[in-house]
Design brief:
The complex is a heterodimer of chains A (about 625) and B (about 50). Chain A is mostly helical and about 625 residues long. Chain A has 21 helices and four strands. The longest helix of chain B is centred in the N-terminal third of the chain and has 22 residues. The chains are: A mainly alpha (about 625), B mainly alpha (about 50).
Amino acid sequence: MTHPGGVVQELVRKIAGSPAILAALVVTAGMLSLPALGLAADAGTPTRDYRDIPGIGSRNLVWIIAQLHLLLAGFVLGVPIFAWLCEVVAWKTGEKRYDKLAKEFTKLLTSSYATTALFGGILLFLLIAFYPKLMAYLTDIFFPSFLVYCLLFLVETATLYLYWYGWDAMQDGSKKTFHIFLGFMLNVFAFFIMIVPNSWATFQASPVVIAEGSDFARAWAATWNPTWWPVNIHRLIANVVLGGYICGAYAGIRYLSARTAEDRDHYDWMGYVGNFIGVFGLLPLPFAGYWLMREIYQYNQQMGITLMGGFLSWLFILQAMLIGVLFLGSNYYFWLGITYRIPGSEMKYRKPMLSMLVILLLCLGVWMTPHSLVASLEEARKMGGTHHPLLGVFGVMSAKMTVANLMILITFMSFIMYWRAGKQETATWAKIARSVMGAVLVLAAIAVIVLGVWGYFVPAIIRINYFSTSQVLIVLFVMLTITPLTALLLKSAKTTTEMVWGRMPPRAGYALVLNSVMVILLMTLMGYARSSSRVHWHVYGVMRDSSQYAFSPALGYAAAFMALNTFLFCMLVAFIFWVATMGDKAKAAHSGGTKGDLAHGAIPAMAGASQTLDKQV
Amino acid sequence: MSEVAQLQLIGLSVVGTGIIILLFVRAQFARVIGFVAIVLGLFSLVALAVP
């Protein structure tokens, strides 16, 4: 059986599947371009500060490419964490399906890694072409870290090769331990690959410039700027969320297309794992975001006000909407799981689920309430000002921090509920443990609300430094107490109802897709916020933007670009998945049988492979 | 036509295209694209609605 368009597809697969070739090209191009920038700097001020292209404009083009590069990088850095965690679970529990899942997603890394490097190369060329003066300045400061970045890229590529190609050869005993170590190192190098460019981006927002000292001292001072670590931590967690939800979305699409019971079982389970890891990352993410905003305010209060109280304040209403939909979507998927995968649980959990839905919607309503309403003169007179007498109370940070923490608590409760459904605790101390967990949850919710209300009556600095921090610590305490307690409790529990895979309705697949779109949109939205917070500066307070684009685009216009970038990224990821799995489908076709003929579990269902689709081909 | 009106028209067209795909196309991948188009179109329209 011939594969349609086989030659072209094979060529595309080979090119896209060779990260070393593309990575080496990009690194070489980067290395070659550095002396050029250095020469330009030596020769004095470049002849042109900016270049432009007609039509789309230089800034818009850089915006699209930079955003796609960042999203791909998030995917490439998030998936190894996801895959490594799955491999460790398989190693510890002996459940081979986790190992297969890890391998499926590591396979995707090879092609996505190459695409990310490709977009990084394009971005570099565009930046050098359009912003020669800015790039010469940044090169002058960060030259040492450019070299470190190139080295990291090479080490990461080599480790990825060993990790991927050594998978089957390193399955037993000490070899498996070494393979797990390789996966760990892959993530360590990936982390450093993330934080080095983060220093370049955060330097632009919160620069630290020293006039004296060696090249290394200047680069180090610029790297360790006030927002560097908050951004590093925030992006690290966000990448886990992105990787998990994209895995979920992929599983959701395959689940919708699946026709055989085996496919439905497999992709339903994969969707569950993806959503679980996405939620796992989502819960601490707002804390990291809060820390970042706090550091921004501490660095420069004006920048903080521009973000949260100035022309970008409505952006945070959109952010609340997106996060709210994400929380709702994640909880909805958990509730669908309880209803359809665990027969008999629907009636037992219907009322708690309804209560949680109502609380989530109320919290979302408060979070989305703006501080100042857009009102006509007559409406403003009736309200007694621009602030509504009742709704105005919900528009301040004290209310928003409270509802955000409550939403995290509710989502955590959904997760615990799902975990415990279909099981009966047999431990003698189960009753006490349940009472303790219930009490901790209720007391934590009350404490969060009390601190939130109290926050209205104290100076802002007290609220920010003590109350909001306490709310975060309380929620973290709940998670760190109840998770191990539940794990201990369920260790000896009796399974009363076996989980049934492949019974989820189609809307579950769409919920997974929706969650991943929300995460991607959030990343594009906050990328715009971070960039716009610098207003008319390339490097805040140091190098002014004197181009024709020295203004922040309006939110509506920017949202169109965010939607476009999200769509392009989704299409790119779909293409990568398609390319990465093409060879497996061709192999299956050439092997003279269809996968559907084999017993369930006899072969791994490789990512992108659908037995139904293979049959159709 | 103002820029906002143009963007609103584009957003509405994207949402409309998504609805048409969901109504008339049976291929699952195309239906998912239609669903994503509706989500993204609605997001753009909401963003255009805020001051």
